Amino acid sequence: MARPRKFDEGEVLGCAMTAFWRAGFEATTYRGLESETGVGLRSLHNAFGEKEALFARALDLYRDSAEAVLDQVFDPPGTDGLIALFQGMAAPLPADDVRNSGCLMVNTVFERADPPAEIAERVAGYRAMFRDRMKACLDADGIPEADARAEFLMGLLWGMLSQIRLARDTTAAAPMAAIAVQTIQGWRAG
Amino acid sequence: MARPRKFDEGEVLGCAMTAFWRAGFEATTYRGLESETGVGLRSLHNAFGEKEALFARALDLYRDSAEAVLDQVFDPPGTDGLIALFQGMAAPLPADDVRNSGCLMVNTVFERADPPAEIAERVAGYRAMFRDRMKACLDADGIPEADARAEFLMGLLWGMLSQIRLARDTTAAAPMAAIAVQTIQGWRAG
DNA sequence: TTGATTTTGCATCGGCCGATGTAATATCCT
DNA sequence: AGGATATTACATCGGCCGATGCAAAATCAA
Question: Which parts of chain A fold into alpha helices (H)?
Fold first, then answer.
């Protein structure tokens, strides 16, 4: 019915997500994506619309990917999964792995001082999702004060991601992960 | 010997610091400062040079202010000071207080994907200073594993500041502060 | 008062970026 | 083959920002 696209939309979206992840919203430009993907500026704009919309789709992709990981790590839900999560967060990775750039959602919290509602909702929703799944892990093992402790673990997690972003290296969070594991084990014992 | 300035440099620097703190490096413009302070664009540029240099001076001012606070809270150094720090971090403040915008250093980690060395050094130095002073508090009370635990507390602190920035409200970190205090007390007891 | 010196106000340059207009191009359906 | 339709390539607009040039203004020393 019409001229077909020369590029795969999902592929380009993935490329945009990692670009936002590494460099942030501002520093990621349509013209930069044009160079990286070889897709023309006008085609990108045709496919994704304004930059804000592309960013929102990148956040959605990120959330979906993260949930897929949680489905595995928290299977079944419990403190073992939490411990695995914190240990995995600080595991060494190849230097060019995008996860050395921290977490796209956390980065977004800080970069965009006054984001549009569409973005703020996605970030807040992501955080709530993550916290609720950690709380479910605490509940599964009968840990008391699960609400406050899940918030506590969220704080710790995002703090680790701060340090990872500062150092551009997941292993920079290893000392924190070690004490986090101790603390969770302490809850389980006590 | 020459025409005198019509503005106070320290006052303008303080204004710039809070602007960077609230809105970030990019969103804070010389033209915006011109409006806020009433000082002409050309005069600002004359006094502070390029924007990067102004930002570096703002970071220095921030560090000095923070150290002055630590001098009080950690007097004498010990876990009581640490507990006071974490509780104070989540204490309610007037809505327009700049501390509801988190921490300038943490914000900087995230906003600037590839900062000039002058900036990166200041941020890393600030974090190291803060961690060392927390470690000194642990040492003062004979807490073991002080190095890793100080890192752990840094992670927690920066995670609380993430949540504060997301919510634009220090009290959003209250649940984390409560568990943090419990955890520190546990170290003291055990 | 006069001259040296710094600040100030105004205008402007150059660059980057998001976004759009337009015409040529490539496909599918009939 | 031929028309309808979406994509592509190219050029460009408008806006914002950092930075600078320049001349008028304001002070102090002599």
Answer: 9-23, 30-37, 41-48, 51-73, 79-89, 104-111, 117-140, 146-167, 174-189
B83-105: per-residue pLDDT in tens?
999 999 999 999 999 999 999 99
Residue B153's nearest CA partner among A183, A168, A176 is A176
Residue A36 CA to nucleotide D5 C1', Å? 28
Residue A38: Cβ-neighbour burial (10 angstroms; 0-12, 13-18, 19+): exposed
Residues of B in contact with A151 (CB under 8 A): 175-176, 179
Distance of C1' in C26 from CA in A15, Å: 26
Structure tokens at A145: 């004060």
CB contact under 8 A, B148 and A179: yes
The neighbour count for residue B132, using CB atoms within 10 Å, is 12
pLDDT in tens, A158-189: 999 999 999 999 999 999 999 999 999 999 98
Predicted TM-score of the model (pTM): 0.96
Nearest nucleotide relative to A54: CA against C1': C18
